[in-house]
Amino acid sequence: MASVSSFRDVIANMYYNDLFDELSEYIEDNPDKPESNSYRVQSPNEAALSDFDIIMIDITDSPGNSILFDVIVSAEVEIAETVRRNCEIGGIEQWFRISCKADLDDGIQNFQIKSVSIYNKYRGSKLGRLSEYLVPIIEKEQFDDVATEFLREFYPEALSTPMPIPVDEVVKRMGLKEVQLTRHFTLFGQITFGNCTIENYDRNERAYKPLEVSRGIILVDPNVYFVRNVGCMNNTIIHECVHWYKHRKYHELVKTYNSDTLLISCRVNETTKYKLLACILGNSTPLRYESMEYITAREATQKWNITVRSVQVLCSQGRILGETRLGNMWVIPKSSPKPKDIKI
């Protein structure tokens, strides 16, 4: 698959003319709004847009398939001022904020420009921000909030009463379905974002065969259960649920360039994702307390000044308080003390 273009590139390619027309109308109707003046023109009474470049896009997530975003542009503007029948002409550069809305459903739909204004550098809430590839930006200190948001929507009972999270029930409430595949244990799991055909390994015939699957199917390798444990299987399934919950919009962006991309595969462990899983599965009320915050084995090496391998062995031997295995990585409560005897 070709590399994915950013949302900024998609907007520039698809909606440059729409943005130009709206910005041009605003500038012509408000010649005195620009904050810049040329040497020859101090109080313009006419203005016209020459061209603009998109500097960046601020993207905010919204419920469903909608997104809100501000297109920040640098515009070249011709301004004019009539003084005593003499027309003075000049050129300036001005930044503008073009606020837009769109739906992501088989590409970008229902694109709308809501407003145009002079750009001012303000910082909105960090919650709900998306990267230029429509991937949620989740800071470390926001894990609890995101996990709580997930549970509140799909299993609010766990927020009021301590209990194990029933993974099958969460899958059902999300409108998803789990299907087990047979593979060579090269993939923990996959999530389908559209109806497609996948290659399923037939152990009896020792060959891959096509299998039709529909949108919203979680594909997991049953070997995860037999080779690892039930907890690893649950982690894999919830991992795919989080992909569905947080990455559908990224997938819609990919589809604007490659409509055949219908799967997200989990081949490696993603540290940020597993920390979020620890918040969702590790406690009925997500890890609000310092004693329940988790760190990775690599972070533990920095804290305790020992090697990653030493931390992994200590975890496997049960010598670190509260250690938990998520997939094939270890996570450790942040408050766990360094083992007194670290000889292995």
List keywords for this structure.
elongated, 344 residues, single chain, 4-stranded mixed beta sheet, Arc Repressor Mutant, subunit A, 9 helices
Please give a structural write-up.
The protein contains 9 helices and 14 strands. It has 344 residues and is of the alpha+beta class. The strands form 4 sheets. The chain has a 5-stranded antiparallel sheet. A 4-stranded mixed sheet has the order 6-10-7-11. Strand 1 and strand 2 form a beta hairpin. The protein is elongated. Mean pLDDT is 79; it is low at 264-269 and 283-292.
Itemize the secondary structure elements and their pairings:
Elements: H1 7-29, E1 46-61, E2 66-83, E3 86-104, E4 108-118, E5 129-130, H2 143-154, H3 157-160, H4 167-173, E6 177-180, E7 189-192, E8 196-202, E9 207-213, E10 217-220, H5 223-228, H6 230-255, E11 263-266, H7 271-281, E12 294-296, H8 297-304, H9 308-316, E13 324-326, E14 329-333
Parallel strand pairs: 6-10
Antiparallel strand pairs: 1-2, 1-5, 2-3, 3-4, 7-10, 7-11, 8-9, 12-14, 13-14
Helix pairs in contact: 2-7, 6-7, 8-9
Mean pLDDT comes to 79
Low-confidence stretches: 264-269, 283-292
Order of helices and strands: HEEEEEHHHEEEEEHHEHEHHEE
Decide which structural class fits the backbone: alpha+beta
Strand order of the largest sheet: 4-3-2-1-5
First CA to last CA: what distance?
A: 45 Å
Helix content: 25-40%
Q: Approximately how much beta-strand content do the residues carry? A: 25-35%
Q: Tell me the radius of gyration.
A: 26 Å
What is the domain total for the residues? 3
Shape: elongated
Question: How many helix segments?
Answer: 9
Q: How many strands, which pairing sense, and closed or not: the largest β-sheet?
A: 5 strands, antiparallel
The count of β-strands is 14
